[in-house]
């Protein structure tokens, strides 16, 4: 897998701001093999810019589940406390009731709209806030001293299509 991502590095001289994207892809590919598949989940696209993550969390109460956003990482944790007061004698136990942590990396323009727990299904609504990237933006060209932190005073103003 590392060889695949080393090929992306040759694009570094032609891209600005994509280093984090390449690093994120590489770290996600390494963690996929380690990830447990509990609890099961779906990611559905509802509309062009609307998505929902559905997670089967049967047996978890609302107070057992925590949904947080840590930077661009959506973290879902489920914590159950086993009651030692009443031991149960299972003949067969096929329903998993264990703690979990599930993480999803979100793009900068993805926002969490809502989250709900109903009938053992956790649903998290996401919205992709698409920017108008297709529009042509004219950048004014100024003469004078280049100062990226402050606005340079210009003597003449020209428009350049970028």
Topology:
Layout lengths: L1 H7 L10 H14 L8 E7 L2 E7 L8 E6 L2 E6 L21 E6 L4 E9 L2 E8 L9 E5 L14 E5 L1
Antiparallel strand pairs: 1-2, 2-7, 3-4, 4-5, 6-7, 8-9
3D architecture notes:
There is one protein chain. This protein is mainly beta and 162 residues long. It has two domains: 1-35; 38-132, Immunoglobulin-like, CATH 2.60.40. Helices cover 13% and strands 36% of the residues. The strands form three sheets. A four-stranded antiparallel β-sheet has the order 1-2-7-6, with no helix packed on it. A three-stranded antiparallel β-sheet has the order 3-4-5, with no helix packed on it. Mean pLDDT is 75; it is low at 150-162.
Largest sheet: 4 strands, antiparallel
CATH level 1 class label of the largest domain: Mainly Beta
The CATH architecture of the largest domain:
Sandwich
Read across the widest sheet, the strand sequence of neighbours is 1-2-7-6
Given the structure, what is the number of helices? 2
Summed over residues and divided by their number, the pLDDT gives a mean of 75
Number of strands: 9
Low-confidence stretches: 150-162
Q: How many domain regions?
A: 2
Strand-pairing-aware structural class: mainly beta
Distance between the termini: 36 Å
Radius of gyration: 24 Å
Which labels suit this protein?
three-stranded antiparallel sheet, mainly beta, about 160 residues, elongated, disordered C terminus, Immunoglobulin-like, four-stranded antiparallel sheet, 2 domains, about 15% helix
Provide a short characterization of the protein structure:
This protein is mostly beta strands and 162 residues long.
């Amino acid at each position: 897998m590392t060889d695949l991502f080393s090929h992306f590095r040759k694009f570094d001289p032609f891209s600005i701001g994509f280093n984090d994207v390449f690093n994120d892809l590489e770290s996600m590919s390494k963690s996929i093999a380690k990830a447990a598949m509990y609890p099961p989940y779906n990611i559905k696209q509802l509309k062009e810019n609307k998505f929902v993550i559905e997670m089967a969390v049967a047996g978890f109460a609302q107070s057992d589940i925590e949904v947080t956003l840590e930077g661009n990482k959506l973290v879902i944790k489920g914590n159950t406390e086993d009651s030692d007061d009443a031991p149960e004698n299972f003949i067969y136990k096929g329903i998993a009731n264990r703690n979990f942590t599930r993480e999803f990396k979100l793009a900068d323009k993805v926002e969490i709209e809502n989250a709900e727990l109903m009938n053992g299904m956790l649903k998290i609504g996401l919205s992709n806030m698409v920017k108008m990237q297709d529009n042509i933006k004219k950048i004014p060209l100024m003469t004078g001293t280049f100062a990226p932190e402050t606005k340079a005073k210009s003597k003449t103003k020209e428009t350049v299509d970028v």
